[in-house]
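SAMPLE LOG
Freezer: B-3
Tube label: C17
Construct: single chain, 396 aa
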Amino acid sequence: MTTQAREGLLNGWDVILVSDCDWAELPSRRQVFARMFAQSGNRVIYVEPMESLPLLFESLKSEKVGRFAQGITQAEHNLWVLSPPPAAPGDAESPLINRMNNNVLRARIETEAKSLGFRKPVLILTSPALHLLAGLLDAAVTVYDCSLQRAGMLEEMGAWAGGWERDLLASADLTVTVSSDLMQSKGGLARASALVPNGCDTELFGSALNGMETPDPLRELPRPILGCTGGIHGWMDAGLLAFLASRRPNWSFVLVGPKGATADIHTLMSEKNLHLLPRVPQSELPSYLAAFNVALIPYKAGESPVRPDPVKLYEYLAAGRPVVSTDLPSARSRQRLIRIAKDRRDMLKQCEAAIELDDTPKLRADRAQAARDFSWQRRFADLNTALIRVMSTNHK
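STRUCTURE (predicted):
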């Protein structure tokens, strides 16, 4: 195994990424980094999250119940996906159940990893609930990728979650966050830290700049079209979208993506010009963005993923689209490129300005040019730099 390879990427290592999202879900940094590790010459096991049987059926994932019986499956060259058995319910309320679930998950990962000859892996954990897995299989390095936290998430996980995270911060060799203020919120408990924001496939989404055929679901909609892509969850401000749609009945508002269990579908369906479209393959998203007059980030400013770094922001910019966002920290850091609204009425005002002023060839090109710094390749290189630094220190 070599720590450094060409372009400063890890090569020849075994990597186990214990994720908080399924492999087939909307692509996030979890799937992207797993695939990039594999393409860089490492062997990777991507472990899907444990979920209780009631939650699996409630979230319409009943097919996942049968997947774990298949054992580990190879998804791509150098990359395997492991679906663990269902978790015992009550993990968040009971340290005993959390320990039991972690032990079951540990045993399943160890069995499958050993069958593939994995040893001393790079271990990446993505949730405080996984704190007991630190050091799994005599890991060469344990990483806590703390990137998807939202306001109140630890509280929702139960009274024990804060302590679990403190344990994980103390035991992980490296803690990775998407923003400096997210790291600061951890109170300096991390042994070593690195800033690795989210990114996007700039080449794919940049294709929207070349002009694309309007997708069928949008072709007959009145313009302007204001749209949002990605999962529809409870932290999306359904009331804001309904307000905008009611105030501008001649505009079309479009949400493209899967509906989460916490989404306020009733409110989102309250206006005739607010359209909910199903998830489309990522390869088709650029054509939807090309058809948007304005791309929206309508998260609840106080309740969205705390200090979020939404992937859609980078996808919108790479596509050159005018962007209007609610007042999120990640949006403020890109305020040179996008418009930020302070409240509902200001959101309406900013959307009107974006429609009138922001869709020029120069501004489209400026946004796409800036997005080149946000490519997943650059983010992955930053992660590798941090890993190599920590691993070199550990082996001195």
